Each structure stands twice: as structure tokens, then as C-alpha cells.
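Entry 14. Structure prediction run on the chain below.
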Amino acid sequence: MRKSGASMSSFTDDEVERYARHLMLREVGGPGQQRLKTASVLLVGAGGVGAPAALYLAAAGVGRIGLLDPDTVALSNLQRQVLYGVDDLGELKAERGAERLRALNPHVAVEALPLRLDDGNARELVRGYDLVLDGTDDFATRFAVNAACVAEGRPLVSAALGRWSGQLGVFAGRPCYRCLVPEIPPDAETCAAVGVIGAVAGVMGSMAALETIKVLSTAGEALTGRLFLYDGLAGTARTVGVSADPSCPVCGGKDCDEGAGDPA
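Output returned:
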């Protein structure tokens, strides 16, 4: 295990044991784990993507997590939203999810935010965190999150899924999410309308958590400017580049390094 006195001294004995497997990794170690401990993440949507992502971020030791979701737990959620159980039915996702994360890791501060993000409150919400993970299933919210992240200089990890497939990207300045999706698709589908295999939510939520951990700890190469495409039915995955759109209504007039604040 790589140990740095300055970094390790800020961890309790419980934390050292809890994060031992991270501390052993050359790419994370004490300095990377310290970055996670001092970082904050706003999770927009505590559903199919957000539920598994939240569990892994809390387990990883991200210091502060905001769990934002206005909905209550429904029985149909339990097929894929692994943060909840039957005892949570009818309860607010943000509040019950926050309780579960605190029980998983008491070293993490979890804020329950049972509200809906929109154009009016997005910037204020985003401003309070180092990074935003968006796992919502509607484009209006995704657009509001993206615009706020660009305006406030916050990295955005965005994941989506449907049926048997999913996609994931990291956006920091240019290109932004609106470069990828300029307008709301007229044939946009939701999981409620077309269905989704539950385990795909686990795959994409875990991948979103992984990219978040990489960005915050500065380990490896994040999916910045790239899109990860997963086909669960075929068992294949590929990565494609995302180009900046010079006419993008959100980031079109900005320099490429604008909007990419220090995540930790």
C-alpha cells in the first residue's frame, strides 16, 4: 500500500481500513482518496442510473453527496433502482436514499433534496457542488443541468439508458451536452414507455460512478469529449468522439477550456 504521511494523517483508522483497496491502487492512493473525501457531487435523479451510482460514490468516500429527486418510490422502480426496498414504497426517494447512503458510509455527508431541478434553480443548485452526475430521463432537465454546469464551470457526467442499451459522456466546457443533442428529439423515449432491462441500469450507473471517481481523484483518462455506447443485448460497447458545435446555444461562443472548474 502506498502511504503518504500528509495524506494519510487526515483519515481515521476506520477510513484507512474502509478504503484500503483504493489506497493500494497506484492511480488513487492517499492523495486520490483525499481528493474524493474533500469533493462534492450533485446527483440529479435517484432512479435507474442514480441509485447504483449513489451507492458506489458513497462507498468510495466522496465527502458530500446531494441526492436530488422529487419523486416517491414506486413498486415498478424496484426492478432496477437498487437503492430502495419494499419498506420505502410511497416515500420520497431523496430522503430514503439519503438514509441508505448514510448507513452505508457514515463518513459521507448526504443531503436529501426532494425537489425538481429546472431553469430557475439549476445554477444555484449546481454552484454548491464540484461535479454533477445527471441520470434523469427527460431532456428538459438534461438541458437545464447542462446549461447550469457550463455557466458555473462544473464538470458534468451524463448517463442515459433504455431497453437494452445505454450511453455515457463526460462534459467539461466544450463540447457540452447540447453539442451532442441540440434539440429534444421528437421521438424521445422513456423507460416507462418502452421498458428497460434492470441490469443495464446497474451497468450505466456503475460506469457513471466510475467516471465521476476518475474525474474527482484525477485517475486515468475520463470520457471527456467522448461518448460510451453500450449494447447489452449484443454484449458490445464502443466509444465515439463528440465534436464541439460552433453554433451550440450553450457553449458555442466559449473557449474550449472555459467551464471546466477544478473538481476537487
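Strands lie at 40-44, 64-68, 109-113, 131-134, 156-162, 165-171, 226-231, 236-241.
Filed with the rest of this week's runs.
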